[in-house]
Amino acid sequence: MPGTDTDTTDSFAPAPDAIRGTVEAYLAALRSGSSAAIVALYADDATLEDPAGTAPKVGRDAIAQFYSALDGSPQKAELLTLRVSGASAAFHFRVTSPVGDHEYEVEPIDVMTFDEQARITSMRAYWSSENLRQL
């Protein structure tokens, strides 16, 4: 943009395509219902706030425990918007989750940071119970 500094390149940042690949793999792992596939995308010392503002889960063990609720419960997940800037990404997506005899839909906005190998180093999910919709 004219008059602004749009160079957000960090010397340690992975290529934008690598970040996009991790985001796509994250959504594919949600669809699979495999917490192990999700956790494999995180760095060992990563942090997770889901939703943002809750106590952070720190490290892969805590993150694995958080995602274990998804095991055996495939989700529907659709990427709506993705923006990559340096070693960070923000993306808006729709996820539909089966809960008992019902399905619930939410459209969070996740903000992630990445290491040199495009592993997730932090994730904050922006949503609240007000955003849940029963289908």
From TrEMBL:
Cited Pfam families: SnoaL_2
Q: Which InterPro entries match?
A: NTF2-like_dom_sf, SnoaL-like
Q: Give start and end of each SnoaL-like domain.
A: 23-122
- Position of the signal peptide: none
Task: Output this protein's name.
Answer: Nuclear transport factor 2 family protein
